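Students often ask what a holo structure prediction actually looks like on paper. The answer is less mysterious than it sounds. You provide the chain, you provide the ligand, and the output is a string of discrete structure tokens encoding the 3D arrangement of the protein together with 1,3-dihydroxyacetonephosphate.
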Amino acid sequence: MRNLLIAGNWKMNQNNAETKAYFEGLSEIISEAPAGVELLLCPVYTSLAVAVETASSITGMHIGAQNLHFEDKGAYTGEITASMLSEIGVSHVLIGHSERRQYFNETDGTVNLKTKKALDANLVPVVCVGELLDERKSDTHFSVVKKQVTEGLKDVSLSNASKVVIAYEPVWAIGTGETASPDQAQEMHKFIRTELSKLYNEETADKIRILYGGSMNTGNAAELLSCSDVDGGLIGGASLKPESYAEIIDAAAKQANS
Ligand code: 13P
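The corresponding structure tokens follow.
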């Protein structure tokens, strides 16, 4: 079955020195990813190289970027290409995080271009989707997420689809301390998997990891990870300290071996 993926999104936190100290601290707690669990941390661009270097002391730890540009090179001041990331040992990339959609005008169209570019460069795209509070209140959350998934994965081939990771992050649960209940998470994850099976087929949909994100922490991770269609977490605040990240990894290890 699917390995759990316990991913941390550090957002605009942790400089080089802090990143190095983090991995030194984490490697004192864990030396390898537990069976059935994969690990991923996504620092800022300037900390990626030091993260790749220092994370190598933890077997099964992957490093991801938080964004990329969909062009191969050119006059795009401030942007980074997929190949620049893979060149330094980055293996994953977050795409379309709600903060990028909200503050940097990311659309389903740019998410789609970036997803395809990541796959071309052999990076694993972690495609973020999720509804706003108003959309949940007005009961449009399923159609919103369906559009994000369908347009985000448009023209992604069947052979590439199983490499994609989806992160369901209800925007109302990000950084608010409010979490989707396990029932709400499972309901949406199952919905997404059903949509993926319509876009591709059941076998492929069964291979695609769907992570939950939004105030996942040491107190709620075990319950969320016990949902059958929740294949891991994309964790913001609680991934910033090695101790709490390691505790969530521990919850995932128990789930993977249950
Ligand atoms: P928090 O875990 O801080 O709510 O952030 C979630 C998130 O946005 C991860 O990408």
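Residues 9, 97, 169, 174-175, 213-216, 234-238 surround 1,3-dihydroxyacetonephosphate (CB under 6 Å).
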